[in-house]
Amino acid sequence: MPIEGQYEPSTIPWVAEQVAEYEASGGTRANTLRDTGIPVFLVTMRGRRSGLVRKIALMRVEHDGEYALVASRGGAPDHPDWYANLLADPRVEIQDGPTPFDAVVREVTGAERDLWWERAVAVFPTYADYEVSASAAGRVIPVLIASAAEH
Fold it and tell me: How far apart are the C-alpha atoms of 91 and 138, rounded to whole Å?
């Protein structure tokens, strides 16, 4: 079931612009993380406090149709706001190309997290540096997996 309602773009201008361009082009433009060449996909969710629709682009870590959502926040001491949104309501839309699909996220731990973390670092090696920074602040970077929702 699509996530509907009032959309509130990111307050970070380049994030809002990337999401808008990605959607307008059906994923043919603004489909990499800035100038890195690393592909991204869009995640649409509901804000836990506002109830507004929120959208973010995340690096594409995909395996067998599932997507990793790495809550790295660049290795900062705190989780990104979107992480709490997904804990409050795990229903999302994933857009990796022209057509979004409904999905549900779940946080992974232990060996499953380790496996997905390896996949994420293979896509974006800087995640390893982020992990060091986050660990120094006492934070484990959460990894959530989005799987297609059953209808």
Answer: 28
- The pLDDT value given to residue 151: 57
| CA dist., res. 150 & res. 138, Å (int) | 36
- Within a 10 A sphere around the Cβ of 77, how many other Cβ atoms? 11
Q: Are strands 66-70 and 62-63 parallel, antiparallel or unpaired?
A: antiparallel
Structure tokens at 7: 């959309």
Bridge partners, 69 (sequence order): 144
Alpha helices (H) in 33-89, listed in sequence order: 81-88
DSSP assignment string, 88-140: H--EEEEESSS-EEEEEEEEE-HHHHHHHHHHHHHH-THHHHHHHHHHHTT-P
HSE-CB at 82 with a 13 A cutoff on CA atoms is 25
**What type of residue is 20?**
A
Query: pLDDT of 96-119, one tens digit each?
Result: 999 999 999 999 999 999 999 999
Q: Give me the CATH code for the 13-148 domain, please.
A: 2.30.110.10
Compute φ and ψ for 55, nearest 5 degrees.
Answer: -140, 140
User: pLDDT tens digit string along 23-49?
Assistant: 999 999 999 988 889 999 999 999 999
